[in-house]
Specification:
The protein is of the alpha/beta class and 329 residues long. 43% of the residues lie in helices and 19% in strands. The protein has a 6-stranded parallel sheet with strand order 3-2-1-4-5-6. α4 packs across α5. The protein is globular, with a radius of gyration of 19 Å. Bound molecules: nicotinamide-adenine-dinucleotide (NAD) and (2S)-2-hydroxybutanedioic acid. The site of nicotinamide-adenine-dinucleotide has 27 residues, from α1. Keywords: NAD, Oxidoreductase, Tricarboxylic acid cycle. InterPro entries: L-lactate/malate_DH, Lactate/malate_DH_C, Lactate/malate_DH_N, Lactate_DH/Glyco_Ohase_4_C, Malate_DH_AS, Malate_DH_type2, NAD(P)-bd_dom_sf. Belongs to the LDH/MDH superfamily. MDH type 2 family.
Length: 329
């Protein structure tokens, strides 16, 4: 039987993450090796020509699963019938810009995109926000889409999760494949909290194996939380291939499920679990099955973790209050 193609919309398609992402989607790595896709590339007018060049290259790959590419600068066209939307395009912080200016500039992008998703996307739309500040941009888009179930709006903390896996594997002399049940809590920002207290390395508790609170506080947590800035410093541009890889992982896991006995981290609207105020888009440990996710319940949160989760959630609440004051939610 021929499957109906899944419509995947990518915003910021002409940017560096877009370039690292589109070929992997078209090759089947986002949704599965048997799932045909149609791509919609949404750009601003200045980005259209470069997006056309990328579309030419996608054609030249002759991907068997790629059933069409549309390019537009109109969100109402870009999200029409979208089943998956990857919101990558965002306004970067430039010199002299205050945090409030950044939130306002991104509100001008994510509010109309949320409204266009509300009006035109398919009923099963799943949204991943990558563009920073990702959690609060997701909140803005979600607030502008009242007819879409709130839980379909998610923000990317999978890159942080993958970064934490690699750092922990190095410290414990293990392979990332041996590590399970690691969690990123909170915001995709320097306040995020990578938590190894429930993680396992080859079946043993990671915190007990590490047994080094100074390493956790002074090395592991800051290395993971400030990795984005370290990459900008080293590369002169923010992470792109690893960010695209994490976006692929996030959606693939959401659609195809987490492995038995493991979980992942996603920025999702809080239901009040673990003391995170309802509605904030915060990172949690989640399991995925049949295209849905659930927060892992019942984890004991020690004092070390509690203070760090609370600090990141406090930052999310401040961002929410700032965009509320700007009339964006
Ligand atoms: P980039 O500047 O290379 O590309 C951004 C693209 O978005 C540009 O082509 C631009 O024209 C386009 N764009 C801007 N406004 C748009 C709009 N309204 N509609 C459609 N397209 C629009 O940036 P990049 O390196 O690809 O990064 C994109 C975003 O992802 C940034 O905000 C970056 O900070 C963020 N990021 C997030 C994570 C994460 O883990 N959540 C990781 C890395 C980067
Ligand atoms: C990252 O984590 O690599 C990015 O979010 C950094 C950035 O500010 O673009």
């Amino acid at each position: 039987m021929t499957r109906t193609p899944v419509n995947v919309t990518v915003t910021g398609a002409a940017g560096q993450i877009g370039y690292a992402l589109l070929f992997r989607i078209a090759s089947g790595q986002l949704l599965g090796a048997d799932v045909p896709v149609k791509l919609r590339l949404l750009e601003i007018p200045q980005g259209l020509k470069a997006a056309e060049g990328t579309a030419m290259e996608l054609d030249d790959c002759a991907f068997p699963l790629l059933r069409g590419i549309d390019i537009t600068d109109d969100p109402n066209v870009g999200f029409a019938g979208a089943n998956v939307a990857l919101l990558v395009g965002a306004r970067p912080r430039t010199k002299g810009m205050e945090r409030g200016d950044l939130l306002e500039a991104n509100g001008g992008i994510f509010k109309p995109q949320g409204a266009a998703i509300n009006a035109h996307a398919a009923d099963d739309i799943k949204v991943l926000v990558v563009g920073n500040p990702a959690n609060t941009n997701a909140l803005i888009a979600q607030a502008a889409a009242p007819d879409v179930p709130a839980e379909r709006f998610t923000a990317m903390t999978r890159l942080d999760h993958n970064r934490a896996l690699s750092q922990l594997a190095k410290k414990t002399g293990s392979s990332v494949a041996d590590i399970k049940r690691l969690t990123i809590w909170g915001n995709h920002s320097a306040t995020q909290y990578p938590d190894i207290f429930h993680a396992e390395v080859a079946g043993k508790n990671a915190a007990e194996i590490v047994n080094d609170e100074a390493w956790l506080s002074d090395t592991f947590i800051p290395t993971v939380a400030k990795r984005g800035a370290a990459i900008i410093e080293a590369r002169g541009a923010s992470s792109a291939a690893s960010a695209a890889n994490a976006a692929i992982d996030h959606v693939h896991t959401w659609v195809n499920g987490t492995a038995e006995g493991d979980w992942t981290s996603m920025g999702i609207p809080s239901d009040g679990s673990y003391g995170v105020p309802e509605g904030l888009i915060s990172s949690f440990p989640v399991t995925c099955k049949d295209g849905k996710y659930e927060i892992v319940q019942g984890l004991e949160i020690n004092d070390f973790s509690r203070g760090r989760i609370d600090a990141s959630v406090q930052e999310l609440a401040e961002e929410r209050d700032a965009v509320r004051a700007l009339g964006l939610i």
